[in-house]
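Sorry to interrupt, but I need a hand with the structure work. It will help me judge whether the discrete encoding reads sensibly. Write everything out right here, beneath this request:
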Amino acid sequence: MFTRKQIAGLLGLLFPAFGLCQPAVNKFFSMTPAYDAGQAILPMPGGGYAIFGYLQPGAGTRFDGFMLRVDAAGNVISQQAYGEPNADERFGQGVIALADGWLAAGSKGAPINTGWVVRLNATGQVVWAKTYANVTRFNQLLELPGGGYLGIGAGAGQMTLVRISADGSVVWQQYYPVPEGFDAYLTSGGNACLVMSRDRVSKVHLGTQQMVWSKKVEFPNLPPGAPEVGRLVDIVPLSKGMFALIGSAYRELPSSLYTAHYAAVWNEQGERVWDRYFRGADRSDYDENEGFCVTFLPNMQNILFIGKTGSNISVTRTTLSGSVLEQREIATPGDVYGVRLIRDGIHYVMTGAVFVGSMNTFFYRSAGNSLSVQADDLSELPTAPPAERWEMQHEPASARAWITALSEGGREAIFRLWALDGSLAREMRLWLTEGENRFPLDLSGLPNGLYWISEASDSTPPRALFLQH
């Protein structure tokens, strides 16, 4: 039985067919004036889609999880937020469609993060919600063939797996001495799972709850320069006991930054079959060229590697052996982040986040069995955002970054540094005077990894910042 990422591809990735009466849908939802981002999307039984993610109702407020229901054309059916005034709640990628609703997992912080699972009925009303004190957050949720569910995430600074029953009760929980699990899938027999961490893949036997093997993924052979760094973002099972990975690789050169999409196929014994880089190029920032997700088309035995090039979505289709069949790009309303793709019948459907004045939830549905090079109807796409009002220079040696901001007059500015999991790492409230303002952002004490800097009231897209002490 195929997982949700293996929904059958009838004809593969083709050029747009003639005579299609329904154009591609390529739009965003501005659910709040501050911040909202889709993390998972699932088809609904009667048609349309349910998008799950998290939003910030207003500047300086706490985050809430949300479910947004839309029809096939992207028209909003309903929108609901889930959260308490004094807590941060976020839904991640771990969402399962049930016969009469959904099960969504993520995190709840008040103020310490805990795992969070919410059972929703068909109209989005909460049936029950539970927190898990020994879990920092759930990043993925899998349905087990023998009943119940497997939550994958972090706890006690390690990877944790938690088996829960249909009512949310814990059946068992185990910690593993590797970084937190971000994504996972069950093997064909259902007796083991492959878990992806930031730079590692681990196989765990679910019967014994023991780790079978754990292998670090290397990011070799980038252009000569500083040590290479990389991160994995998605894993999907293939045929013949293999799986595919996608991520991003970076190398800082003397005068530029080299970035690429990392793509690989491994087998379930922990052996790399092949790996390579797509879209490699010199870029000015980490978030201008990165991998997002990977999807398997079993009928064609092809793999789709989805990422970002500039401000557009990039698609690379390969064979199981890694031969590139085609590459193309999809125009988006603005800079796009964290895209997830599913296959619904003959359609490709995506969600994520797009920056247009602020961060907004992205929605794309292809016109039939084709990922269009650009939207078939660009009438709803906004004009270009205003000129940048601030910029950043990173000084790794001094553990700080310098922010230079232009202001037409005196005003308060709130700069926030976000970790990759969406948690707030730093916040600075400053008074800007007319003209150029320059001030330092202290980065000392922060763990290694990728961060984002944003300014609450500004239209400048967030800036990526990679820390490696």
The chain is about 0% helix and 60% strand. The radius of gyration is 21 Å.
